[in-house]
Amino acid sequence: MKKEQEFWKVKAKGKTGQDLDEELIRELNNKYAQDDEPAKNRGLGQKVFKLLVILTVLAYLALALNQLLAVYTLPSLDFVHRSRELVQDQQMQQLREAVVEISVGNSGGTGFNVEQDGRIITNYHVVDNAGLITVRFPQGPPYAGTVSAVFPQVDLAIIEIEGQDLPVIETDPKAQPGPGDEVTVIGNPLWYSHIVAKGEVAGETTLTGWETPVLRVKAPIHRGSSGSPVIDSSGKAVAVIFATSTQSAGDEIIGLAVPVHHIYE
After folding, report:
1. pTM (2 decimals)?
2. Which of 49, 65, 175, 188 could be stapled to 238 by a disulfide with Cβ–Cβ 3.0 to 4.6 Å?
3. Residue-by-residue DSSP string for 10-30
């Protein structure tokens, strides 16, 4: 382009110079000068496009890496294999039948039935501000649930469903589990359904803002375990899992459970 601009700016010699229209020359010079601008703009646009492509690729790589890390940071799934062994016991099979999956929109938790016509105990935070609640037993059709009572101060709630001759778990409001007592926890951790796990009571603790102590339970408690029954050696529910403790003992998971007597007070 520069050579062409220089050509038009060369002063013609001799008679040829008289025949040339200097105004036309100026117009041509201006035209070529203007033609350079779109080329420059196209070059800038291509650089911007390449930059956007690079940023998009980096974003996808970051997302993929995050998902990969999430897979590798999942807790051990040994509890799934252990559950398959435990459910061979007839009592465990019967207790498991009364534990339900609770679905609330895109989230959910666990609960357990205590009345044959359908009375589910779960956590308040599982059903807080819930619209449609779906309750599923291991066997049979799903049920529509309605929250009939809440105890937000101890994170408990009751869901009513319209059922008949449903499997139940008995509760023991007078039970006082102590450190070292063996317990069974049945729930739906990490999107696995009706997992049976063995654990033991590690004692009691009082949470900030809570007036009454809660149980500390050593067991594989994970997301989705909220509302799981803590069952003693007699086969009765004595507490309800609602969280895990931040004060972990090594690699052990410490679950926090509310004694069931709060529902009957």
Report:
1. 0.70
2. 175
3. SPP-HHHHHHS-HHHHHHHHH
